[in-house]
Design a protein that fits this description.
mainly beta; four-stranded antiparallel β-sheet
């Protein structure tokens, strides 16, 4: 089973940028979509972005469109989430996920998850 490790979170001020990374073990990474989700305290996990195995299909949540960019490097088994113009409402634990069985935007359809990385944006 593939294992995922996120990194790159931290404490930043509103308007700053962060780049999250998601590194996978195993050979299946390059053939699977990579999804990004986040969960704020007291809230449900929500979809942020997803990228197809080739990078040819990308979708974003409306709340991050124009500010976040998802990408991947299959040679490095790594996915990225570039987050610009961060807002306090972006504060959450961010997760990457692989192997969706169904909807790419539904967290419940993903089979493999990382441990999450905390992003805190101060105003």
């Amino acid at each position: 089973q593939v294992q995922l490790v996120e990194s790159g979170g931290g404490l930043v001020q509103a308007g700053d940028s962060l780049r999250l990374s998601c590194t996978a073990s195993g050979r299946t990474f390059s053939s699977l979509p990579v999804g990004w989700f986040r969960q704020a305290p007291g809230k449900e996990r929500e979809f942020v972005a997803v990228i197809s195995w080739s990078g040819g299909s990308i979708y974003y949540a409306d709340s991050v469109k124009g500010r976040f960019t998802v990408s991947r490097d299959n040679a490095k088994n790594t996915g990225y989430l570039q987050m610009n113009s961060l807002k306090p409402e972006d504060t959450a634990v961010y997760y990457c996920a692989l192997d969706p069985d169904g909807s790419w935007t539904n967290w419940d359809d993903y089979g493999s998850w990382g441990q999450g990385t905390q992003v805190t944006v101060s105003s």
